[in-house]
Design a protein that fits this description.
This protein is of the alpha/beta class and 368 residues long. The chain folds into two domains: 11-206, Rossmann fold (3-Layer(aba) Sandwich), CATH 3.40.50.10490; 209-350, Rossmann fold. It has helices spanning 11-17, 19-27, 47-51, 62-79, 88-91, 114-125, 140-144, 163-182, 187-208, 211-221, 236-250, 286-298, 332-350; strands spanning 31-32, 37-38, 55-60, 83-87, 102-108, 129-134, 147-150, 226-231, 253-258, 275-280, 302-308, 320-324. The strands form three sheets. Strands 4-3-5-6-7 form a five-stranded parallel beta sheet, with helices on both faces. Strands 9-8-10-11-12 form a five-stranded parallel beta sheet, sandwiched between helices. Helix 12 links the parallel strand 10 and strand 11 (302-308). The two termini are 31 Å apart. The chain binds 2-deoxy-2-amino glucitol-6-phosphate (AGP). Residues 61-64, 108-110, 113, 116, 159-161, 248, 364-365 line the site of 2-deoxy-2-amino glucitol-6-phosphate.
Length: 368
């Protein structure tokens, strides 16, 4: 087992650290830089039908569902095809309106999640184009979908999904390119996305070097009873994912919210015992996020911010700022989630918990 962990104390840490490599593997041979496009062999036969879909649905569970939310933002922004994301467990039980003009993506690391598989069968029965985004090669969802794309993140052993998530985001970005270039996405914009994608693994490598710094922050927060994670736009799903990571391995109650929703309820929870993690890179929502930060600070909440590396201003506003490299908006979640994976990991380790196999959880949920 020690050899499998590659010298790391846990699979989860190994898998977090592997991300520069897993992300390179997810992109390898799939980026057409000059054409500002993506080459996805698995979708070649269905690409036109996909691009002509009236509507796209994305169905998944847990972390894969969070990836789906990021996908929704990407697809709607760059392809202008209306996109909805739904928990697989809800989709299958509510007589969904879906048919032959729709495409439904099923995202699953394991490819064996019972709810996702059942939703896939339901979508196929109703005539939709059913596409899989799976990590496990030859898995049930990969086999039963009409076509699909493998994430190629490599085997993920830790119950908490890390590298599979970031690879799902890469694949969703590649699919965005593929559909977008068949629609209105310009060559220039396509090239920008393609070239930015190629820079992501090196940037992730840089973020991973912050591990010791994040471990020190974890020490300060390991006894917290609750956490809030807040982000806007593309970083709202990252807030949900950061909270899920913390919940499942450290057993600390955590909630993710769109930052602006704070004032509609969660703000009542804030006092000096409520740590708040803001995902606050310098993007179009930065000014708004800053005022949310000030509201928390005024109420004594302890603040950790995931911020852009050139942002000196934020140091005066928060207790801890984790500074990361920047990229274009649609790819930021791949970077902003990495410190949150490490934070959850270190808090769980400091609490002496079994991070690779948390209580009550299975890697692949094959029961309904
Ligand atoms: C992620 O950390 C969780 N363990 C869980 O939410 C997981 O993402 C979910 O069960 C879906 O699994 P899948 O991607 O294999 O379908």
């Amino acid at each position: 087992e020690e050899i499998d962990k590659g010298g790391y104390p846990h699979f989860m840490l190994k898998e977090i650290m592997e991300q520069p490599e897993s992300l390179r593997n997810s992109m390898r041979g799939r980026i057409l830089l000059e054409e500002g496009n993506a080459k996805l062999g698995g979708l070649a036969d269905v690409a036109d039908r996909l691009a002509n879909s009236k509507r796209i649905l994305i169905s998944a569970c847990g972390t894969s569902w969070h990836a789906g939310l990021v996908g929704e933002y990407m697809f709607e922004h760059f392809t202008r095809i209306p996109t909805e994301v739904e928990y697989a467990s809800e989709f299958r039980y509510r007589n969904p309106i879906v048919g032959s003009e729709d495409t439904v993506f099923f995202i699953s690391q394991s490819g064996e999640t019972a709810d996702t598989l059942a939703a896939l069968r339901e979508a196929k029965l109703r005539g939709a184009l059913a596409l899989g985004i799976c990590n496990a090669v030859g898995s049930s969802i990969a086999r039963e979908s009409d076509a699909g794309v493998y994430t190629h993140a490599g085997p993920e052993i830790g119950v908490a999904s890390t590298k599979a998530f970031t690879s799902q985001l890469v694949v969703l970005a590649l699919i965005t390119l593929l559909i977008g270039r068949k629609k209105n996405l310009s060559l220039e914009d396509g090239k920008l996305i393609a070239s930015e994608l190629l820079t992501i693994p090196d940037k992730v490598e840089k973020i991973l070097k912050l591990n010791p710094e994040i471990e020190i922050i974890a020490e300060q927060f390991k006894d917290a009873k609750n956490f809030l994670y807040l982000g806007r736009g593309y970083n709202f799903p990252v807030a949900l994912e950061g909270a899920l990571k913390l919940k499942e391995i450290s057993y600390i109650h955590a909630e993710g919210y769109p930052a602006a929703e704070m004032k509609h309820g969660p703000i009542a929870l804030i006092d000096e015992n409520m740590p708040v993690v803001f995902i606050a890179p310098k993007d179009s929502t930065y000014e708004k996020i800053k005022s949310n930060i000030q509201e928390v600070k005024a109420r004594g909440g302890k603040i950790i911010a995931i911020a852009s590396e050139n942002d000196d201003e934020i140091d005066h506003l928060v207790d801890y700022a984790i500074k990361i490299p920047d990229t274009i908006e649609m790819l930021r979640p791949i970077l902003t989630v990495i410190p949150l994976q490490l934070l959850a990991y270190h808090i769980a380790v400091k609490k002496g918990l079994n991070v690779d196999q948390p209580r009550n959880l299975a890697k692949s949920v094959t029961v309904e």
